Amino acid sequence: MNKILLLLCALVTFLVSSHAQDNILINAYNRPSTSLNGAWSYIVDPYETGYYDYRYTPHDQSANPGNGAFYLNAKPKDKTDMIEYDFDQSPTMQIPGDWNSQVEKLYYYEGTVWYKKSFDYKVLSKDKKIFLSFGAVNYRADVYFNGKKLGVHEGGFTPFNFDITGLVKEKGNFVIVKVDNKRKKEAVPTLNTDWWNYGGITRDVKLIEVPETFINDYFIQLAPKNKQLLSGYIALKGSNVSGKKIALNIPELKINKELVTDSTGRAVFSIKLNKITFWSPDNPFLYDVFVKTNDEELQDQIGLRTIETQEQNILLNGKSIFLRGICIHEENPLRQNRAYSLEDAKLLLTWAKELGCNYVRLAHYPHNEHVVRLADQMGLMVWEEIPVYWTIQWDNPQTYANAENQLKEVINRDKNRASSIIWSMANETPVSKPRTDFLLRLATKTRELDPTRLVSAALEIHATDADPFTKTIDDPFANYVDVLSFNQYVGWYDGLPDKIDRIQWNIKQNKPVLISEFGADAKYGLHGDSLTRWSEEYQKVVYEKTIKMLQRIPQWRGVTPWILVDFRSPRRLLPGVQDGFNRKGLLSDKGEKKAAYEVLKNFYRLIKKLYE
Ligand code: GCU
What is the model's pTM? Predict the structure, then answer.
């Protein structure tokens, strides 16, 4: 009997989680919602005693989960009861927010922390649905609501939500989340990264109410290679989606189009446009867009632009551009935590703008939605990337499914953002057939989900043995990307600064080239001559020589030096210099400008004039 019950429980869990996972809920950002941000109780559980029983069977897969199952939020019924946890007597942490920066003893912690948030809710009317929405949780989230398992999400940097209609009560609701940030060989990213493994519920949590039949998804962009055509789709979800009227209203384009959904609830449109104000870094114009059904109206702010390549050029709205960029990690150095707020986004993107950038590379994972929406407003083009980083398990089907799911989630979230122009499949991944097949599958999926943006990756480059000073891109994935990108560290990891002067490039592919990384470490305030490792002078000369060298690449169309700000990394341990920081920032972790900062700023001032 027990086995059948177990099987039944597992099946229900799968159905709930897969059902909960397949929902999209476009534009969660602007929807009317109830925030669950704020103080959440937490329990640190390194042995996952709240998840496994003493025979190491997950409590939530047991027909009779005992009092040890934290997700039940059990309370003693009388003095004989033995319960060894109590969320309400436990400390609290601010959500959104990583645990490393909020709790001293969790600075290096990698493991499980449980969170609980209780709330009352008004009676949900019959014609409404309600979703529990997370901006991101790093890394794995097991989510429970009022003692029921909603599902599991893997991936630390993309949004997900669960349908809790029918479970929410007027009084005494409680959300319990088991967060596990342990690094795993089969995960995405894998065991080894050069950034801090901030764990926790790191982005906003909210309750989103929608009508029983609601606007679940839409894609509203200019058609690829046709600046005069607005095309896309709007999709409803619910019990009655066929033949429904949808109004698409863009007042400043004099569009007020009535659409009707097909039997699947989708309405496709193609609208010829006369006069458009194109979105661009110099004029980041956003249209107010209204999508309306009888039951709800959503508002979005959408910029219209085209992005394409033509031979060795990148064209924005048909005009060749140079991407004056900088790499950014999602970290607020002044608060020394995982960045998550609009204020954090303003700090980082304002620093990028002050540097003269029209473009940022969001390394090495999708950043929070405030960043891309602010980039829309500030006029910064964006390279977005999933954390397929270094030595991923290429031949593991679950690893691929995880990578593809994260890709789907970020494309779904940002596909209406004008600032987002490039989807990056990977960073510095060792060439092999399984790896290139893995990346090609991701690229194919990307183009299927979003044919309007460019596909790239930080590819592998090599010098020929015959001539160590001539570099080439012999990465097979170069045949599949729209834009060739690669990281190169001549003068830092590869020789000393003088080697930079001798480098030639032999790039055979007739495509634009973006240098996705170059740089050198410098401890702010450490001075010496240009061969003194870790000095500002060394970093400065690497910038001066590299910028000169890159101009020898005829199809060079942009660059994102590594990196805007010093950032935390467990791999950077040199006392008195690194102290747990990667020091390749142009700014110190206190926002102080190093000598190389002006070198890049001056170059961007010059190159901007050349492309005007
Ligand atoms: C690599 C990698 C970065 C890393 C950098 C470095 O290119 O992409 O994530 O931080 O080099 O070594 O500083």
Answer: 0.95
